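User: Predict the structure for this protein chain, please.
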Amino acid sequence: MKAILLLPFLTCAVLCSKDKFSEELYIRQTPTGHVYTHFRFNTLWDTDIRELDRPRHFSLFPRTLGDILTAFSVQEVKLSLTQGIWWYEKWGYPIEGAPPGGLVIARFLPSVRDVDEAWVGLTSALAGLLCASLNKLDQTEAIQPVHSFSNEGLVGEGFSSNSSLLRYGLLPRENLCTENLTPWKKLLPCKSKRGLATLLNSAHLQKFSTFFSLALQIRPVCTGEGCSEPAVELKQSVSVVFDPVIMNKKSDNVDWSFKQMFGIGLTPFCPLAEQSSVFVDITDARYQLDPEPQRVLDHGIGMPKKIAVYDVKTFADDQIRNVIARHSKPFVYGIVKSPPVLISRHVVGTGQEKGGIVTTIRNSCSSSLTAVYLDLIPWYLRVYLHTLRIETNGKAVRPVQVVYRPGRDRVQPYHLELVLNLPPRSSTTIKIDTEYSVLRWTEYPPDANHGFYIGAAVLTTRLPKDSLANLTSTARESWSLSHMFWGNPDVDPVVNIFTETLLVTMPTPDFSMPYNVICLACTVAALAFGPIHNITTKNLVLAPPEEEEKSLLGKLLSPLLGILYSLIGRGKKKESTSAEKTEEKTEKSD
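Assistant: Here is the predicted structure, written as structure tokens:
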């Protein structure tokens, strides 16, 4: 009865507040046949992030995140957990890039007391919230970028834009599992009971995906005219790349459907969502959608993209609907056009003493670009600035600016940040020598011989307007996909391109030798302990056979031995009697 009475008041509190929530899904099939799906859930909280210490109401925004922002004076934060590698040369640019493993970027308010303490507390709180190992991102795993990762939200009085309040950390070994996805879905207003979140079935995502990324980002934004009413925007996103060949078990069949990818079709929308839409990129598509989309939009300038739109509120209002993409002909793999800017990185050198890291940046644009290269290298991989060599098309060049902060053993990592000028249609190579440290035996992971992972480097640049064919990016004023596709706003084409993670073999001791020594020592001690203990604790006394104390085995075998001896004795008596009888007969005959 109390729940029934409280329901109208709760509904009124949600409807009367200025908080907003939207859920969107973007689908694009790549030239290689893979299906890229991007979920985006945006929550707008009508409050000023600079005044979170005052009492606030939480209607749609999760209170756990609000308490974390308040406790550690956070202005902006971005978190991502990724399983797999995004192949830029095959799939193009994603809507939201992320490196393999874990990533945390945080910018704190000027009112923070101690940035390092706030960073440690923030990562520990996020680790407990998402059941991840983000608490390992202490000062030994984080750096302070100077030119990378500029402000995503508001800048002005009471907000920080100084790099001294920015922290960046990587965990390349962190895996993305169901235990991370479940608490992430609980932050949504409808949880995973209604709306597009019902499609996030962990069993199907883990089984058929080749790339799986989960992200969470918070920033301050404007809602009123003249930015008179600041607000807080929360973006929760999931990016998954499926391989239809694995789902269909045929190399030339790349058909896909919602039920194949997610295990269920489109369900009714979340009642708390203002927008619930599905966008399918059908530009140059060789398939037909069944059922047909409700509307087709032209997105972009010049050669616009074709975007099919499904409004979940009217498309799946009272039932579960499945969307199927069927190809009329078998899929033929052709030439894939790569993005205009690519970056790759690999390790060189032999042995376990010295090596090097080589990074290659390729600019295919018709104009020169200014890019920022950021690399976070662990302290146990020593890097020397005098070995840095930069070449463009085989000629040595100098960077525009260099930021180098040497690492300290077990205190802080190495920080290398370069501002580069990339000529048009050029290839730039960055080489730097490394030296491997000898670690303490307690600092090795359980699989020490597998090697150590080095986090991905990131390249930040602004693409020219004539090279935006592979880019799908949201506007700065709103993270909503509907605002991007329906409004066609001017997009700032700044991209963050992440490299692969590196696997380095460090000098590793033979951990099997202590095990062998322990086994041998224990065996020798066990063999020597028994006789020595008996000699020192027992007296040797002569005893007649009938008084000899028998062991448990002797007691068990004595009845059997008695029976055996009696049978043997009877046999001997029979033989002796028969022998005596034969002797008597011979005497009588004589």
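Confidence is low (pLDDT under 50) at residues 1-14.
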